[in-house]
Amino acid sequence: MARTRRGTYDGDAFRTAYDKVLAKWPADREALTVATPFGVTRVNACGPREAPPLLLLPGGGGATSVSWYAQAAALASTHRVYAPDLIGAPGLSVPDDGHPLRTPEDLTVWLDALLDGLGAPAADVGGHSYGGWIALDYALRRPERVRRLFLLDPTQCFAGYKAAYLLHALPMLLRPTPRRVRAFLAWETGGADLDPDWLRLQEAAAGFAATRPVTGPRPTAAGLRSLDKPVLLLVAANSRTHDAERLVARAGAVLPRGETAVLADVSHHALPHAGPAGATRRLTAFLSVG
């Protein structure tokens, strides 16, 4: 799958913005690289090496691994945190153009190789947005490798996109520019006061030579009912991506060991970095049980 560049892109500006957000991570952060069949994956890590592993998957677009900066310290108090940049998406991972990620099965192979390279036979796994879909799909395909699963306003897991969201995103997707990225985020977040360093990184990712994200169908109700794992679903009340209450209702009806909550006063793209303090407490409490 060829990588396409649909706008202007300044690699130096992107790296500068990336490093500035990464500097907000705990002081013990480490930059790791893991070889996989689809290229070299950059992983930002922190927390005690002997602690249980926690894999954090970012959303799509410009939401790189460093977007977990507001949660990393709290999560690293009980876990060894591993946050990869997605292969073929903005970030510091380097895809192998001869072996591109094409299918959900490829994503499973990539995550298997990633966990193997990190020395983690199994891990707690969390994801935001598109990363939530990847995490849930992996838990369904590889239940033996996922101990607990948390999902932050996941897309395409329990409900589809709102038409208005797709219409507003279309100009940015067709020709990404910093101005269009900023305008879209301002619309989706309701003009929230976003971290300027994080916002600059989203703008700097515009035009990155990315591959088309690997997607698949939403999980079936039967598949979700078979997921015998603790699952925490936190949904943004102000999300313009989907209907929060409907999503929670659908998830609650099919997840046998699911906990759900709607986070007030936050939108889809303000997570995970600008989520309310209560969200962090819910995550750490959920991950600390058992």
General form: globular
Q: How much helical structure, as a percent, in the residues?
A: 25-40%
Computed CA radius of gyration, to the nearest angstrom = 17 Å
**Arithmetic mean pLDDT:** 94
Number of strands: 9
Determine the oligomeric state from the structure.
single chain
Classification by helices and strands: alpha/beta
Q: What is the beta-strand fraction?
A: 15-25%
What's the N-to-C terminus distance? 42 Å
Q: Please outline the major beta sheet.
A: 9 strands, mixed
Number of helices: 10
The residue ranges in which pLDDT falls below 50 over 5 or more consecutive positions are 1-5
**Secondary-structure element order, as H and E?**
HEEEHEEHEHEHHHHEHEH
What would you note in describing this structure?
- The structure is a single chain.
- The protein has 290 residues and is of the alpha/beta class.
- 36% of the residues lie in helices and 18% in strands.
- It contains 10 helices and 9 strands.
- Strands 1, 2, 3, 4, 5, 6, 7, 8 and 9 form a 9-stranded mixed β-sheet that branches.
- Strand 3 (53-57), helix 2 (69-75) and strand 4 (80-84) form a beta-alpha-beta unit.
Structure summarized in a few sentences:
This protein has helices spanning about 10-20, 70-75, 105-115, 130-140, 165-175, 180-190, 195-205, 220-225, 245-255, 275-290, and strands at about 30-35, 40-45, 55, 80-85, 95, 125-130, 145-150, 230-235, 260-265. The chain is α/β, with parallel strands linked by helices and about 290 residues long. Helix 2 (about 70-75) links the parallel strand 3 and strand 4 (about 80-85).
